[in-house]
Amino acid sequence: MKKFGYYEKLSLAARWFLPREEAQGVIEDYRDILMEVKGPEEAVKRFGTPVQAVLATADRKNIVIRHFMLVLFAVLSFLPVFLQIKGFYSFPAAIFAAVPLMILVFVWFGGGKSKEPGIPKGLAVSCGLLVLLLILLCGAMFYFSANPLHPYGRYMGACLEIIVPVSAMSGLMGIACAQLFGSRWKAAAILCVTTALASMCCLSLIHCMAPIADPVSAFRACSWKCVLVSLCGMAAAGMSLC
Amino acid sequence: MLKKDLIRLCMLHLLTGQDRYGYEMLELLHNAFPETQESAIYAVLRGLSKDKLTESYQGDTSAGPARKYYRITSQGKEEYERLLAQWRQLKAAVAELGVE
């Protein structure tokens, strides 16, 4: 209650439960109202907890739809992880989850030009790090396909196994941030999904059971696929940041 | 007539006299309906705005902090008349039963 006051909590709750424009209206109204209230304890007594205050204005049907969408985003984000757990490293299956997820994120948070002013510092840093990770991933794939006997090559698979669930989790966090702090955060979510997809592309080749006649060429082809996936993801993220 | 409609009627009635700011409305309504939480009263106030029965404007800042004032619209006046007629009907029906 001390660090996050009643108004801040109410703002977050409004952004979580209400459509963006309605949330803004409720936040502005409560800012005026809470100026007349003595403290957070009195606010809780008079309006209920911040979540209760927001829920009083919310349309139940809308809340159900919003949460259904979040569950859908979570399922699609974690589908590659589920495949990984099952040992089914399929790049087409990962695409099957990632493409609808990206389209849904775009549609849900609005694909047009954002009305919010400026790009938050946290978002810029997150996107920068994710782009760097994608470049490193593609670079490593090219390097190890050219140097298949390099001793560090064996760690590549282990790193990718970690990157997939971390990216899925981060992607979901990006979606939550887009809901709470502004639609531009969908760019971070899209980059996370792209990272998971590129990793899955490499893992599908590493765990391929079929005999590969020319592994060097196969790895090089996979590297180009990673580059293509990364470029598509970066373009979509760039559009999200506009 | 539901309690929510009764609160709507009271809000519209308060606004027919003069423009008022949100907190003032909440206080007046909470005094009349003490068992109703103020967030629920605010939800009704917001509902009136959404249904275009009231409109808001930023008040003068000379007498203190900037406040959002509400005023009744022509649609709101029609709704007020409708709710008032309903309320009078209900009151008469209840009085006929001998309830005072």
Overview of the molecule:
The complex is a heterodimer of chains A (242) and B (100). Chain A is mostly helical. Chain A folds into two domains: 53 residues, no CATH class; 177 residues, no CATH class. In chain A, 79% of the residues lie in helices and 0% in strands. The longest helix of chain A is centred in the C-terminal third of the chain and has 29 residues. Chain A starts with 5 loop residues before the first helix and ends with a helix. Chain B is an alpha+beta fold and 100 residues long. Chain B has one domain: Arc Repressor Mutant, subunit A (Orthogonal Bundle). Chain B is built from four helices and three strands, in the order H-E-H-H-E-E-H. In chain B, helix 1 crosses helix 4. Chain B is globular and about 50 Å long. Chain B starts with a helix and ends with a helix. At the A-B interface, helix 2 and helix 4 of A face helix 2 and helix 3 of B.
List the SSEs and their pairings.
The complex is a heterodimer of chains A (242) and B (100).
Chain A: H1 6-17, H2 20-34, H3 40-47, H4 50-57, H5 60-85, H6 91-109, H7 121-146, H8 153-181, H9 186-206, H10 215-241
Helix pairs in contact in A: 1-2, 1-4, 1-8, 5-6, 5-8, 6-9, 7-9, 7-10, 8-9, 9-10
Chain B: H1 3-17, E1 20-21, H2 22-32, H3 38-50, E2 54-58, E3 68-72, H4 74-96
Helix pairs in contact in B: 1-3, 1-4, 2-3
